[in-house]
Amino acid sequence: MSFPDIAGEIAARVPGLRGRLQANAPLAPFTWFRVGGPAQVLFSPADEADLAIFLAALPAEIPVTVIGLGSNLIVRDGGVPGVVIRLGGKGFGEIEVLPGHKIRAGAAVPDMMLARAAAKAGIAGLEFYRGIPGAIGGALRMNAGAHGGETTDVLVEARGVDRAGAIRVFSHADMGFSYRHSEAPEDVIFTAALFRGRPGDPAAIAAEMDRITAAREASQPIREKTGGSTFANPKPLSAWKVIDAAGCRGLVTGDAQVSEMHCNFLVNRGNATAADIEGLGEEVRRRVREHSGVELRWEIRRIGVYCS
Q1: Is 299 one of the catalytic residues?
Q2: Which residues contact residue 88 at a Cβ distance below 8 angstroms, ignoring those fewer than 6 apart?
Q3: Considering its fold, how many domains does the chain have in total?
Q4: Main-chain dihedrals φ then ψ at residue 234, nearest 5 degrees
């Protein structure tokens, strides 16, 4: 599928744009599932200022979608209309260690890289990021957490650009964190964040990160085409337990499968479509609902249009 080419029209509105605009750009290579259709326009801004100028000039009727590392994402087979923004490079990928056991990171910094930088600087409390396969922007949006820690535990403030091109700063209180959720405005694209940890011994921090890595490798299908945890835990229950109890471990739709290793993970066995994967997730939700009355909530983000 391809969309009408509007990249030239958009570029003409922002003559000083330094980032890259691509029409009908494939998105599957940017997702861990390796599925999905193209972006009508893919924009990779050079830095925060470039992003702000772009958003201020973009017509309000053109939808904007943001993607990160693609670890927690299904792009539907019909692709994504409008503009897809993907942050990366030097403009959004820097880490700075600051006094007071603080560390600043761009939104495109992988969570595990933040954990490593904090460990090297002797900043404890951010080890849990070693077990999260995403980037800082996504961690802010969904209050990402693992192994006993959450973003809300360490965030001081977040910075972003709204749909009108205004640069916004959000305190911890402004973020309105709850389990796997933030109340930050939906139109804000996060560009950076400031975190605070506590004093720690680099060797002890590294050892804890090694423990997290070993636990993750032993229990999750991280070397397969997957999207991480599919459903949020229906507290006080665990998603994998209600999925397993409903007989869904190993369940297959097309070339998508519920992981035998960890049944809150869906896997592309090689030739799955986005429809296979999302359809399998919905079948899991249906079976769990019928078996235990539990309504599972998608943790994996799904974007784009269905292929007709």
Answers
A1: yes
A2: 44, 108
A3: 3
A4: -80, 75
Catalytic-role residue among 20, 163, 180, 211: 180
Is residue 180 part of the annotated active site? The answer reads: yes
Residue 142 lies in a domain: yes
Helices (H), 121-222: 136-142, 172-175, 202-219
DSSP 135: B
229 is catalytic: yes
* CATH code at position 79: 3.30.43.10
Q: Please identify which of the residues 127, 150, 208, 299 carries the catalytic annotation.
A: 299
Token representation of residue 185: 């405005």
Asked whether 165 and 146 are in contact (CB, 8 A), the reply is no
Could you tell me which of 177, 123, 174, 189 has the C-alpha nearest to residue 150?
177
How would DSSP label each residue in 99-129? TTTEEEEETTSBHHHHHHHHHHTTEES-GGG
Kindly report the CATH number assigned to the domain that includes residue 196: 3.30.465.10
Q: Which of 159, 229, 278, 301 is catalytic?
A: 229
* 33-73 confidence digits (pLDDT tens): 999 999 999 999 999 999 999 999 999 999 999 999 999 99
pLDDT at site 13 = 93
Angstrom distances, CA of residue 54 to CA of 66, 68, 148, 169: 14, 18, 39, 19
**Angstrom distances, CA of residue 289 to CA of 16, 243, 284, 297, 302:** 52, 10, 8, 11, 20
Q: What pTM was estimated for this model as a whole?
A: 0.93
- How many other C-beta atoms lie within 10 A of the C-beta of residue 259? 19
Domain presence at residue 2? no
Domain coverage including residue 41: 7-86
Residues 6+ apart with CB under 8 A from 305: 37, 76, 78, 79, 80, 81
236: burial class by Cβ within 10 Å (0-12, 13-18, 19+)? exposed
- 72 with 161, same domain: the answer is no
